[in-house]
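Q: What does the predicted 3D structure of Hydrogenase expression/formation protein look like?
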Amino acid sequence: MEMLQHDPARRRSGLPEVDAVTVDDFLDGAHRAGAVGVLLSAGDPARFPEALDVAIVLPELVTAFQGRLRGAVIARDAETELGARFGVRVQPSLILCRGADTLGVIAKIQDWSVYVDRISHLIDRPGGAAATVVASIIPAHQPSRS
């Protein structure tokens, strides 16, 4: 698995990088360990500055969920292909997977309580339930950065 040192999201997160070739091994390993895989599709941090914020939050979520999550960052050159596979419509996004099954996608930066609530809901629901997407929460008085 090649680590691209110039990828600011990967550097900020300190997590491994996956691409179209290595993502299934990562997700299988997380599943075998009894964890849900969480993939960060960051996008271009120059275009989506909040990608760096999500890259900082992801390891904190992994720690907070005490072994129930394993995180990785999707390589920039694999984001289009893997984004289509996992249903990413907005970057940055966190993709939660149990093995090969996508549980849900959480888009944009969120409040900590939103992450904890949504992730708890996604990883604790019975198998086979439909995946969900959490849209960005932007207060009416705050302009979008996109």
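A (community wiki): The structure tokens above were generated from the sequence. The two ends are 31 Å apart (CA to CA). The longest strand covers residues 101-107.
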